Amino acid sequence: MKCPFCQHDETHVLDTRVSEEGDAIKRRRRCGKCDKRFTTYERIELSMPFVVKKNGSRTEYAQAKLRGSLMLALRKRPVAAAALDNAVQSIEEKLLTSGKREVDSNYIGELVMQELKRLDKVAYIRFASVYKNFEDLAEFQDAIEEAGHERKRQE
């Protein structure tokens, strides 16, 4: 580890602890040359899989895009911000635990629909109408009936 003050290559670890949040290792270090002290943190670096779009192109996963899609579907719906955060976290956990380096955008769309169906049926229908490209009223009715059957099973 290079010293941030003099750029010397040799530093010594004086103390190692788990951070207060429990998500990192905190190390107190001292430079062998200038004798100054500094702190470093080690954190887990998780890499999300790449997203393969319908046209075959690949792009990096973007949480902002996922969150934006959910927020658009949930616009003016009585869903708490914490519930939205939990939905994003749930989708990301499923992506990470899939173990895949690439996932189809369709897979992410299905995960979004599952979360929206659980959160708010109206938001689910909104998203499904765009995602599945509904072309007539019958497709809307089918989606509404599907959401209604899901509600009856939960009651």
UniProtKB/TrEMBL annotation:
Renumbered zinc finger spans (unnamed): 3-34
Single Gene Ontology BP annotation: negative regulation of DNA-templated transcription
Domain ATP-cone: 49-139
Keywords from the named record: ATP-binding, DNA-binding, Metal-binding, Nucleotide-binding, Repressor, Transcription, Transcription regulation, Zinc, Zinc-finger
PANTHER family per record: TRANSCRIPTIONAL REPRESSOR NRDR (PTHR30455)
Family as reported in the entry's similarity comment: Belongs to the NrdR family.
Name of protein: Transcriptional repressor NrdR
Native organism: Pseudoduganella flava
Phylogenetic placement of the source organism: Bacteria, Pseudomonadati, Pseudomonadota, Betaproteobacteria, Burkholderiales
Gene assigned in the entry: nrdR
